[in-house]
Amino acid sequence: MRSYSASEFDPFSEAYLSSPYPFHEQLRAAGSVSHFAAYDVYGIIRHKDVAAALGDWKTFSSADGVGLERFSEGTMRRTQSLLLEADPPNHTAMRAVIGRVLSPLVIRQLRSRFEEEAGQLVDRLLDLREFDAVKDMAEFFPVKVFPDAMGLGLEGREKLLPFSDMVFNAFGPENDIYERSDKIGRPVVEWLLDQTKMENLAPGGLGRQIWDAALRGEIAEREAASVIRSLLTAGMDTTVNGLAHAVLAFASYPAEWQRLVDNPSLIRPSFDEIVRWESPIHSILRTTTSEVVVGEHVIPAKVKVILFLGAANRDPDRWEDPNDVRIGRDTQGHVAFGTGIHGCLGQLIARLEAEVIFAQFIRRVRSFELTGEPVWRLNNALRGLSSLPVRILPN
Ligand code: HEM
């Protein structure tokens, strides 16, 4: 067994988060496992090892937090997610309840509303011709359709974005990136606590269905509001980033956009290719419960391990020309939505949002052109843009 490459670089630094891919190449070259001295955490970079870790919850536990902090040590900057940060058996019961609320049948019922909203949005974008694809499209759409589906009031919904940004930043250290987002996101907590009370959620919405499960005794009442907040966090900036990355991809790879226009049946796999290429959650952590062999290394028990999802999704041993977008490539096995018992429960909603928007674009947009430099929004766990100026040409 080899010793780890002791990496001096900081996987939560602005330099890394602005441009992670060159650093991934260095990590891959150094071996299967790295140790980051600044935080005394380990990192797994290769696709096969990341996928194996995601699939092995007994060894790679989520219960002590999927960020740097350990819930067992108290003093947390955020509330533990009852779903994401639980191991079986606690996780199993909760996942069954939320899985029913987000079931394929329920999501199918949302389709016509989502399609209608996508049509109206693309009408507006075609009128504008030039716009910011983050603010005017990628943020606008999920902030409209997902809280609608949850049954949230209209007032103040835009606050969900800075809240989600803060929560995902809290997966990393208390660095400047976290501090900046905390200032904007923290005041939202009180508003959100109020919004997720049963009486403030519209009857028939997904939020009320979670409360109904609590009233039936399937989950504790105090858990209902907490899980609803988790969904409103997990389902916002992630989807925003996925949609913005799609426009960046279509503008940067016009031939791939044309391939999608020529083959609309590729809509679904094309979203997989987008999130493989730029993974909205770039990394997530686990805690080892026992010593474990990864590649040519042994990771000790009871340590935090960063799973670099974004790097695994660009592993050259898994995909040819991984840094390029190729609509129609086989993306099976990508880990942008995780895999195993914690695999994304909201992916049908995210996929539906992408699908209805792409369908409108395919019918009505000939091309996307960048009119300025894309600006990245740095986040300790998320990869996303804060601005993407574009022009669209109609058909
Ligand atoms: C879990 C990514 C959209 C709800 C996850 C995980 C990833 C992920 C990587 C696994 C985390 C882990 O293993 O620790 C994404 C991406 C999205 C997206 C890339 C959009 C493109 C959504 C939406 C919702 C949602 C829209 C809510 C409706 C959840 C929940 C879990 C989860 C509840 C935890 C599942 C569990 O622990 O059993 N997501 N997600 N996600 N996601 Fe998503």
From TrEMBL:
Q: Which SUPFAM superfamilies match?
A: Cytochrome P450
The GO molecular function terms of this record are:
heme binding; iron ion binding; monooxygenase activity; oxidoreductase activity, acting on paired donors, with incorporation or reduction of molecular oxygen
Q: Cross-referenced Gene3D superfamilies, in alphabetical order? A: Cytochrome P450 (1.10.630.10)
- Does the record's keyword annotation contain DNA-binding? no
- Identify the Pfam families for this entry: p450
Q: Which UniProt keywords apply?
A: Heme, Iron, Metal-binding, Monooxygenase, Oxidoreductase
Which PANTHER family did the record assign?
CYTOCHROME P450 YJIB-RELATED, P450, PUTATIVE (EUROFUNG)-RELATED
Q: Which family does it belong to?
A: Belongs to the cytochrome P450 family.
Give the protein's recorded name. Answer: Cytochrome P450
- According to the entry, what is the taxonomic lineage of the organism? Bacteria, Pseudomonadati, Pseudomonadota, Alphaproteobacteria, Sphingomonadales
